[in-house]
Amino acid sequence: MRRVVRQSKFRHVFGQAVKNDQCYDDIRVSRVTWDSSFCAVNPKFVAIIIEASGGGAFLVLPLHKSGRIDKAYPTVCGHTGPVLDIDWCPHNDHVIASGSEDCSVMVWQIPENGLTSSMAEPVVVLEGHSKRVGIVAWHPTARNVLLSAGCDNVIMIWNVGTGESLITLDDMHPDVIFSVSWSRNGALICTACKDKKVRVIDPRKEQLIAEKDKAHEGARPMRAIFLADGNIFTTGFSRMSERQLALWNPKNMDEPITVHEMDTSNGVLLPFYDPDTNVVYLCGKGDSSIRYFEITDEAPYVHYLNTFSSKEPQRGMGYMPKRGLDVNKCEIARFYKLHERKCEPIIMTVPRKSDLFQDDLYPDTAGPDPALEAEEWFEGKNGDPILISLKDGYIPGKNRDLKVVKKNILEAKPAKKPESTASEPKPGSPKPTVQNEAKLEELLREVKSLRDMVTLQERRIAKLEEQVAKVGI
After folding, report:
1. What percent of the chain has pLDDT over 70?
2. pTM for the full predicted model
3. Dihedral pair phi/psi, residue 270, rounded to 5°
4. Integer Cα distance of 98 and 47 in angstroms
5. How many CB atoms lie within 10 A of CB 287?
C-alpha cells in the first residue's frame, strides 16, 4: 500500500535568518551557567542578559535599533548578582521581570522609547527566596501576577501591584526546579524537577493534581510545558543520554501518549509553543538548529515538520509573541537567536502565493488585555485569554504605568476598577490626590529623562568639538 503524506499547512514552513544589518551586533551575551533562554522579546523591545562586572545586567533594545550596539549603551543594572532569567509582562509591553543570583526578583518599567540612561531603580523588588532565582514567569491572563522559582526549591507567586507574596509552595519539590509553565488560563502550573518528576499543581489550593516519576530517565535537565488542550509536552534525556520529547495527559500520567527519541546531543532542549497553530519549536542550547513539530489528535500525535539549520551554535533564544509578527508575509514565528557577540532574528514563514490575510494561519490570538485582576485570581476566579484578530496587524495601545501600592491592613478592600470611579470624585474622596501624585511622578520622570538626554548630548557636542579642534590643528 502506498504511503500517503500527511496533509498539513505547516509542512513547508521554512526559516530564514535576516540580513546582517538587521541583527544586533557587538553584544556580550551572558556566560552564566544556567539553562534559561537569556532573551525575551515583545512587539516593542528585545531584552538580552549580558556579561556585567560587579552585578547583573540586561540590555533592552527597541526592535528597530539593529546594527552595532555601542559599548556605552544604557543597561538595566539593579541586581547585585548575575541575572538568570527575564520575562516581559504579557499585559504591558513596557514591564519586565528579572530573577537573579542575588536571590531577588525585580520588576522594571521601561520608558516609551527605550532607555536613555542606565536604570538601577526597579519599580518593585520582590524578596523572599533564600537562594538564587532562576525562573520568572508572568501569569497568562491575570494582571500583575508573577511566579518565581529559586534554587531553594520554592515557588512563590506574587501580586506585583502590592509587592507581596501571596502563595508559597515550599514543600512540593525536594530538588532544583528546572522549569515551570502556566496552563492556558493560568489555573494550574506544571513543573519539571531534578528528582526526574513532572508535577501538575493547583497553586491556589497548594495541591498536587498529578505527577509522573521518571518522565525521562536521564540525569540531565528536563523541560515541561502546558499545551492549549491541557496536555503536557516534555523534553529530556533517556537513560542512554539520547534526547527525547514526550506528550502526556495529566488525567492519566502512567504512560505517555507518545515518546520520540531524537539524537545524542547533550544540549538542553528549550521548547517554544504556539497555541494557535499547535506547533512546538525545539531549540537546543549549543545546537545550531531549530526543529519544529506539529501536535495533533491523531497518531503519532507529535509530527516532525522540518529543521532550520545554520552554522553558528545558539547561546540562547527569544520567541516573539504572535501579535508581534508580520501577518502580510505569512510569518508564523520569529526567533531571536543569541550568538556569542550578537543577536540574530530568524523568521519562520509559510509559503503562500496570495497577498491576502491568511485566516487559517492566524486564528484569533491572545491579546494584551488581562482577563482578570490579580485580586480576582487569588480569590479563585479563572479567565481564558482575551483574544484579538490579527487581520489588520496588531496596533499597540497605550500601556498603563505599573503602580505598586503597598497594602495597608487597616484600609478597606479597594474598588475593583479605580479608573471608572476616578472621573466622578465624591466629596472628601482622597482619590484625585492619588491621581495627581501619579501624574506628578510621571512628569518628574519625563523631566529626568529629558535632563539625562540633554546631558548626554552636551557630552557628545563637547567630544565632537574636541575632535574638530584636533583636526583643525
Report:
1. 92
2. 0.84
3. -95, 120
4. 10
5. 22
